[in-house]
Amino acid sequence: MQTMKFKRIHTLLLLFLVANAALAQVTFKASVNKFRVGLNERLKIDFTIDKQGADNFTPPSFKNFTVLAGPSQSSNFSMINGRTSYSLTYSYIIQPTKKGNLTIASASVEYNGAIIKSNTLKVAVTNAVAIPKDVNDPRYIASQNIHLVAQISKTHPFVGQSIVVVYKLYVNVNKVSVRNTRETQSPAFNGFWNQNIDVKNLVVQQGSYQGQPHKYVIVKKSVLIPQKSGKLIIDPMEIEITAGVPIRRRDLFGNMMYNNVTYVVTTGKKTIDVKPLPLEGKPTNFNGAVGDYNFKVLADKTSLKLNETAQIKVEIQGHGNLKLIDLPKLSAPNGLEVYEPEHKEKISTTQRGMQGKIYDQYTIVPQFKGKYKIPILSFSFFNPADKTYHVLNSPDILIEASYGKNPGNMVITSAKQNIKYSGSGIRYIHTKTKFNSTIKPVLFGTSQFYLWLLIPFIFIPIAIVVGKKQKERANDVLGNKRRKADKLARKYLSKAKKEMGNKEAFYIALEKALHNYLKATLRVETSEISKDKIASLLQERKVNQEHIDTFITVLTDSDFARYTPSTNVKIEEDYNRAKRIIAQLDKQL
Predict the structure, then answer these.
(1) Bridge partners for 270 per DSSP
(2) How far out from the chain centre does Cα 469 lie?
(3) Domains located in the chain, CATH noted
């Protein structure tokens, strides 16, 4: 019995060693075409296994990378001097989304029931690199006609002085068109207090870049306040652009065809030389207020009666670093109780910086009868316009309490009061009661009883008619398809309909609606393929050629109409035409 058991263990061990030997001969390797790339460059990565029979390939997560294409699959088989070799490769085109030493994790495949993992890879990602000059390279054309600019209101401010940075994206629309944008790196404002200004709509405006006419949109605005002197660095902002570059070919309708390329634009680093505040003339109570301000201390009343309180407001108004200012504290003499102030701010942040007012509102209560003097409050600030310190003082405030406790002679008085009968305070207790029955009369035999009895017979023919109509509608296959298609068209075009008053935003939304519809229907990323490929995909789905041509025409027109004059009538016509073609396509698809 032990001998048989030993033989069984020996057999299993032998099979395990043979399986390991077979797996040891399998090579699953990851490789890249380069280990050092710029943030705006692409990278090709291959995962190769040298044995047939591998299955269930699982790629890595590609954290910190964007997959631009893949997986594409290729195999190679050769026989030399009787020896055969085989390889199967899965390839991806990826682009980094951040700088630094990035790791690409392992991929895995299944071979002979075992999971095999590839090696990991490390790639060094640097700043965006200059694209080599090649007039035939679409990425070079995009780099020459799309620019991201950081416009700074002041490059030599004082410490505490507000500056504004406006980020503008310039596009030469005669050479390229912008399809999609994605912010890949936000600017860092080390050494600055900062606040973003909301940019609600990307409004296209006319402008020029290096003397050439361009259109631009403001993509970001920020207010910065330097907190220390010296050279402070604003790190770059970077945006990934999907740009359409003309390829000097036209489609069947004579419209220009485009090649979509991905390109990263950057502002580069910006240096701000911050000047220290002057020491000459600096007041002793200066606490960092920089700007142009008014200062006032106001009381809502100065004469108080019994149980009355007063409100005193300490307020600063003007423009500058308002959110960083500490208001002077109110001090009061003995006998005047002062509660903790309620702090309020009414500040708007615009391209001129912060402006508005801040104030502390105090509640005061006199403890004794008499007169109380609130001392002068002082506020100082530095005005960058005249490079001078200013000191503002409030006037004295005199509070008079005409009723209260005498400090040295406290008198408490009391007086008798007659009790008055109000007529409602005391009630007699009733000794006799009257019983009222709460039992409701019987419903049977009443008119309401017969009405409720007839209601079901009235609704029976109505239910029959409604059921018949619903059955007819359910059997109306073509009608149901048309209604479903119309609903789908309205769904995808809802954003475009909301923007019908804004030509630029309308055509951007219209083009996205058409692409999103195809993306959902055909399960492809249509923004990455040409109109010829879209037409080919629709032909494979047996879509009527007339409808394909109409769809391509609407898609092309929505691209060009953004940069050409248009009327509200034309915008409405294009919306209705897009709605009809989506409905027609959906009925066929």
Answers:
(1) 234
(2) 47
(3) 20-126 (2.60.120.570), 138-274 (2.60.40), 293-379+390-401 (2.60.40), 477-588 (1.20.120)
